[in-house]
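Trying the structure run again after the queue cleared.
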Amino acid sequence: MDRASKIFIDIQSHLLEDDKPSLYIEELSRSELFGSYPLVMLKELKKTDQSPKHHPEGNVWNHTMLVVDQAAKVKVQSSDPGAFMWAALLHDIGKPATTKIRKGRITSYDHDIAGAELTVKFLKEFTDHEIFIEKVAELVRWHMQILFVINNLPFADVKKMKSRTDIKEVALLGFCDRMGRLGANQAEETGNIEKFLLKVSDM
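Done. Tokens:
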């Protein structure tokens, strides 16, 4: 087994088997491996700030670790836990490249689109399983649609989303994304997911 395959299998086993995968991933992030491509793409999350209003937990790395642990709690609800857990880990991989300060606010517009492309590049370093890579990338691409749909924003593209991925998987990932922040209200976020699924089922 080559080095890349071993790294991929090690990470996946912890994503799928651990109650809190963040503990292993945090440990891995302190190793020299995180300085090499493509894991350095995850290391960049530690340097990427977020809006303190929406993300009181701090940088993108902190948020991602919370999301991964939340995803571990609900992965049994996923039709493809492997793809789902990798999507949880990589969902904001596009933020380092898109985060800017605009009018005094930290923003990361289109990080979902950039993230999908980076997800493909990241995973191709570890596996040639194209269907798997596509599943993960599409979940990353569409994870912001919940916010767009329930707020009637022009960035919503339900028709295309439904043609490319499973909306129930998007909803599950979106729930973990929303819960992966300090002070998250589970009842409120559950309600938002239900509202999203109801709206897109009629579109």
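DSSP finds twelve helices and two strands in the chain. Worth checking whether this holds up in the mutant runs.
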